[in-house]
Every structure is written in structure tokens, then in C-alpha cells.
Amino acid sequence: MSSNHKLLDLVAAHQDTARFQDLLWEGSFGDYLELLTADPQISRNAFQRLYDLVESYGTTSYSEYKKTILRYHFFDDPFDNTDAVFGVDIHLMKLVRILRAAALGFGPERRVLLLHGPVGSAKSTIARLFKKGLEQYSRTDAGRLYSYSWVTDQGLLPCPMHEDPLHLVPDEAAPAVLEAINARSPRYPVRQHGELCPVCRHMYRETMREVGGDFLKLQERIRVHRVVLSEKDRVGIGTFQPKDEKNQDSTELTGDINYRKIAEYGSDSDPRAFNFDGEFNVANRGLIEFIEVLKLDVAFLYDLLGASQEHRVKPKKFAQTAIDEVILGHTNEPEYRKLQSNEYMEALRDRTLKVDVPYITRPSQEARIYRKDFSSRTVAAHIAPHTIEMAALWAVLTRLEDPSNAKLTLLQKAHLYDGRAVSGFTEDHVKELRKAASREGMEGISPRFVQDKLSNALVRDPDLSCLNPFMVLNELESGLKNHSLVSSEEERERFRALLTTVKEEYEDIVKTEVQKAIASDDSALSRLCGNYIDSMRAYLLKERVKDPFTGAYQEPDERLMRAVEEKIDIPDSRKEDFRRELMNYIGALAIDGKTFDFRMNERLHRALELKLFEDSKDSIKLTALVSQNVDPDTQARIDVVKQRLIDHYGYCDVCARDVMRYVASIFARGDAKKAR
Ligand SMILES: Nc1ncnc2c1ncn2[C@@H]1O[C@H](COP(=O)(O)OP(=O)(O)O)[C@@H](O)[C@H]1O
Ligand SMILES: [Mg+2]
Ligand SMILES: [Zn+2]
Ligand SMILES: [Zn+2]
Fold this sequence. Notes:
Number of helices: 28
Shape: elongated
Bound molecules: adenosine-5'-diphosphate, magnesium ion, zinc ion
Strand order of the largest sheet: 8-11-14-4-15
Helix content: 40-55%
């Protein structure tokens, strides 16, 4: 069998024919009423469907500054993971709250939802996620919806706006029908949202005449079918992007005359000679996205306002036409500010609900954006530890306002925002800091800039085997030279200085990491710990220590104890307390029949590591790393450390060697700065 056939089998195995049949469901009007009675959800309006979609993926809650925050899993992008939105949960919560109020009919369903934020803050991503979600949802049982076609002599004539078959129920009968359906108190009471579109109204009138006013006969001319929302097929999802101001044309929004069909139907006022294919028509039952909505010509502003407030649009030559769709606009912060005081905005202001979508201000969340695009799964080269984190840290630093508290650096502020401890600062302080900086996240570097520079850095050298932070920071720096969104020289200088801050932070991190790798020799740590504790016990009990080798008794090794304790800043005056506390702890363990292990006390562990590092720094001759000739003994020790970096810290052969050299050069510089 040829491999082509095998592939075809594979395709066949993966298609779900039952589901496919479901999506092609067709039935009579009576069948539809039965479906509706069994599951009234199928005639939800567009806001209700969107809200239910978002809610259907569930939430987790966490607390931040003593407030409970809900994370909607929908924003993790359960569909294909490419459009997850991180780090702005409070704003997403607000957006979902609006959708909920709209679903319940409390008013927001009569507004334009306006996502507002700086360039590259995930506004389009959120819109894309909604669209993708609606498409998928309409294919599930929970999210299904229906429309209908007219059976004519020329074949089926589908409603061009895929409206709900419920619109066909005659006005006189509607209350009784709805009452029967609503008897089981569905989540949202079923209503007729809107009414027949011009084509269907025309068909309804004509058909009624033919059947002598008998609805039971009319409904024989109706075929109901399931609707699958699809932006590509222009069903239920629309996008509108204003072109330059002179070229805007209302037909793009509300449809156009079909001149070819005028001949067929004999008149340009026959709705069948009109293409109801403007974005508003297409998006009926789902969502329309207005990209850069504030660039919309004033002439169409009123179309937009009517569409949101009245749920109606006005196609050329036809009466107002009902629509049922979510209107989601977005605008960039600069554009918004430019228009803030003009009359266009006046008209728009109280008809829009603005939801801010700022940049992320937590470095660890920002890093998730870049990890999404640049991971070992998607990139051939190895990405050295901290590379993405440092780029993210820089991006966040450019967005933060300088803290007014002189005791706090900008870097520390970023750490605090990330939930890390900075001594002397509590959660309440962080809350205050957040409050004081209300425009934070509305300015600074866009994630898109960083994404571009990361990919530049990756492709610069086709043989690149490992991408390290310096390559990325350099790429960011050179990118700053001609970044169009940097507004002034002063700002450019500030961003550049922040790159230095990030380099210093990186230096600190890798220094500690290499130190740990050198000192993470468990048997050596155990030995050192044992010596420390023997001396400590003898000291506290005023005894002498027996030398295991000679058997001779000696004074406790005060020099060793102090050398360890000084590593964690225990002054001479406090050493007694520290030792006694430790001794009590070890004693309590002994009573329980347990023995002390250096890992049980974090501070002592760190102190021992630093002491061991100090001791082995000379024996390893870290500085030898930067020289050419290394004796075999030193080389062997170096290799052990390198292997630890690879096994436990995520380095590869290349970046492990580089980072050891780098740290060696820091120590060779005689950097006296103490490791934390
Ligand atoms: N909060 C965020 N979470 C996840 N990705 C983000 C976030 N903010 C920005 N991005 C990413 O940055 C890029 C730009 O986002 P985009 O939605 O096009 O921005 P906008 O429409 O606001 O200008 C996208 O790749 C997007 O995934
Ligand atoms: Mg965008
Ligand atoms: Zn119709
Ligand atoms: Zn590497």
C-alpha cells in the first residue's frame, strides 16, 4: 500500500463522522420547537452564549493583596494554546463581569465594549480568543444554535443573517409558545431577540399569501438547520478595520445592492437583490470586532451606536434590521488620548464600556508570554537559563513608575510586584505602591518589541546552539536605537539604563547559582555540617572535642564556627543565641529519634554552602577557567561543577561553560560584593 493511502487512513481515523452528522442536522420547524423545549439554551442571544462559553471552562481563585481574584480558565486558551492571556486577571474579571451583566440584560448589552490599552497589550488576542471560542462552542452540544432556509422553486434560500427560527412564530402565537417553553424556568428565559430580516420578511409575506394565511402550511416551506459559526465562512463572526478616512464605505458594514440580481427580481427594492453581507449582517448571532474603532469615520459612528444601542442596523434602501451580536472594539492608548476631548468621543463615551487592558507588571507573568513562543519545543537552539526571564524583567521595568519611597529601588519594586519578599515591605505596602501608580502598565515597552528582538537574536547566527541573556539584552539595546514607539531621547536613555540594571541582576543570580553548584557537594556539606555541630555542642556544653583521627581532645573550633556564621550575617553578640536555638532543635529531634540534616535549617544550609564555596574557590581555581592552561586535576573539578549546572540548573554544555567563565571573571575582577 502506498504511503498516501496510509495517510488517508489516518485522516479517516481522526474524523468523527457522528459529530459531522450532528453539525449537518436538518429538520422541520416542529422539530426545532421540540429541540427548544428540551434545551431552551439553543436560542440564547449572543451575549448569553459568549458569557456561557467563558464561564464553561471554570475558574480558580487566588488571593492578591488580600483580595480574591478569579482566574477564568477560558483565558488559558483551551483551544490551541496560542492565545492565552496572562497577568491581567483583574481586568479580565471586569470584562467577564460586563459580559455577565449583558447576558442578564442589565444594560451592557446595549453598549460597545471597548478594550483600551497600549500597543501590544493583548487586545487583539482577547478578541481572537472570543472568536475562536465561539466557533468551537457552536460545534458542541452546549453551544449549538440553529437557523433556517426557505424552500423555493429555485432551491433553498437560507436566511442571510442566520437568524433564529423562533422569529417565524407569528406575533399572536408568540406569548403562548414562549410561556410553554419557559415553564421549566431555563437559565435565561427564551425570548424573540429581534425580528425577521428583510429577506425573510419578504418571503414570509409572499408565502403567507400563497398558503392563504395558514402558518402550518407556511412552516412546511421551512427547513431548519444547525449553524456552525466560522469567521472564514463569514458566519456569525465579523471583523471590521477602518481603512483611511476617505475610503470608508457603509456597504462594508451593512451590505450592498447586487446589481446582477436586480434583473432577476425586477426591482432594487426586492431584498433578494440585496447582499446582506456587511460585517454587521455576517456577525449576526456572534461577535463583531472593530479594530481601531476610534478611526471609524463619523458618518458610520451612528451606524455603530445604533447597532449597539438599538440592536439595529440600516442597510441602504431597507428598513432597520434587527441584529443580535456582541460588539467589541479596541483602541490603542495613544489614539484614545488624542480623541479624548473631541465631539466624536462625546457621542461615544456614554455608549461604550471601557475595559483597560494594560501591560503586565509582574516579571514572571511577562515571561510566560515569551515562553509561549520561545521554548525548547519551538526553537532548535538551547535557551540558557534566565534568558527569557531577564528580557521579561526589562520589559516590566520600562513600564513601572519610580517608587516615591527612597528606600525602594525600581528593581525591588518589580520583585515586590512579583510576590517576592523585600525586607521591610509588606503586602499592604505593595497595595499602596500599586495605588500610587495608577498609569502603570499603560506605557513602556510592548511585548511585541521583545518578541521581535528575541527572534532576531535567534536567527542572527544560523548555527546558534545556545541563546544566552547577553545576546538578547544586546539585541534589545540595538533595537532601541530605531524603535518608533520610544517617544523621546530621555526615554530611550532610561530604557537603556534599565538594561544595565537587568545585567546587574543577572550577575547576582548567576553568581549565586555557580556558587551553589560548586558547593552543592552533599558529602562535603555533611562533613562541614558535622564539624560545625561537634564544635558547637562542645562550646555550649563547655567540653572539648575529640579528634577522630588522633583521639586527642581539643578546644572547639571557634574560627570555623564564626567563618560559617558570618556568611549569614550573625554578629558575635548573637552567636550564642543562634547556637543555642540550633542545639535545642537538634535535641528535640533526638528525642523523637531523628537525626539532624543540614537541609533542615535553611539559613545554616546557605551558610555552609557559602563557606564551602569559599574553601573550594581556591582549590578549583575558578580563575583558571579564564586562562588557557588548566591542569588535569583542576579540569576534573571544573567538569564536576559543570555537570551539576547541566543536571540541576537547566544549562547545556555551552552555556554552562560560558556562565562559569563569566562568574570567574567577576571574581577575577575582585568583586567584593557579597553574595546574598
Ligand atoms: N497579557 C498578555 N498575555 C499573553 N500574551 C500577551 C499579553 N500581552 C501581550 N501579549 C502578546 O503580545 C503580542 C501582541 O498582542 P496583541 O493582542 O496583538 O496586542 P494589541 O492588539 O493590544 O496591540 C501577542 O503575541 C500577544 O500574545
Ligand atoms: Mg491589535
Ligand atoms: Zn432572515
Ligand atoms: Zn545552553
